[in-house]
Amino acid sequence: MYPPVLCLFSAALLGTSLARPPDYDCFYASVFEAENPALKGLPLAVQQKQIIVTCNYEARRRGLRKLQLIKEARRVCPEVVVVLGEDLTRFRNASKALCTFLASFSWDGKVDRLGFDEVFMDVTSIIDFNERLVNDNLPRLSFFCLKKDDPAAGFPFDASQVAGHVYGEKNEK
C-alpha cells in the first residue's frame, strides 16, 4: 500500500510537490466487510434510498454496479447481500482511522482527507530523502527507506528501472 518509487527526480528541481492520492476502492462495502468478515467473498451491495451506492468486486463480477436500483440488482444477482448505508457515522470513523494510519507514514504530516474515500499524501520529503540514497554506481542495488530514523525499515529496489507506466508526448508518433 505504501507509495511505490514512481520516479527518482528531485521535486525540488521541479519546484513542485509529489502527492500520492490513495483512493480506497469499494470503500463503503469494505467498511462493512471489515466489521463483519463473513461478508468477504459474498456479493455485497450498500444501499442508500432505493439504489446501490457501491458494491464490492464480487458483486461487480456478477453484474451489479453503482446507482443500480435495488430491485434490478436483486434480479441480476439474487444472492446479493444488501446492507443499509444511510448512517454515515461508520464511514466517517473508518475514514478518519485510515487517514491517521496514512499520516503515520508521512514524514512531515502533510496528509489531507478530501472525502471519506480519498486522501492526498504529500510524499515529497520521502522521495527527496531517498533520491539522495540512490547508489549512483550500482542503482539496481538501491534501498528505499520508509523511516528517516530507522535505516533498516524499507525495501531494496532497482533505481535503474522505472516503476509504472511511461507515456510519450501526446503528439509523439
Automatic annotation (TrEMBL):
Name this polypeptide is given: UmuC domain-containing protein
Signal peptide residue numbers: 1-19
Keyword tags: Signal
Tree of life domain: Eukaryota
Keyword Signal assigned: yes
GO biological process: DNA repair; translesion synthesis
Residue stretches making up the UmuC domain: 23-126
Natural source organism: Venturia inaequalis (Apple scab fungus)
InterPro entries: DNA/RNA_pol_sf, Rev_trsase/Diguanyl_cyclase, UmuC
Keyword flag Signal: yes
TM annotation in the entry: none
Molecular function GO labels: DNA-directed DNA polymerase activity
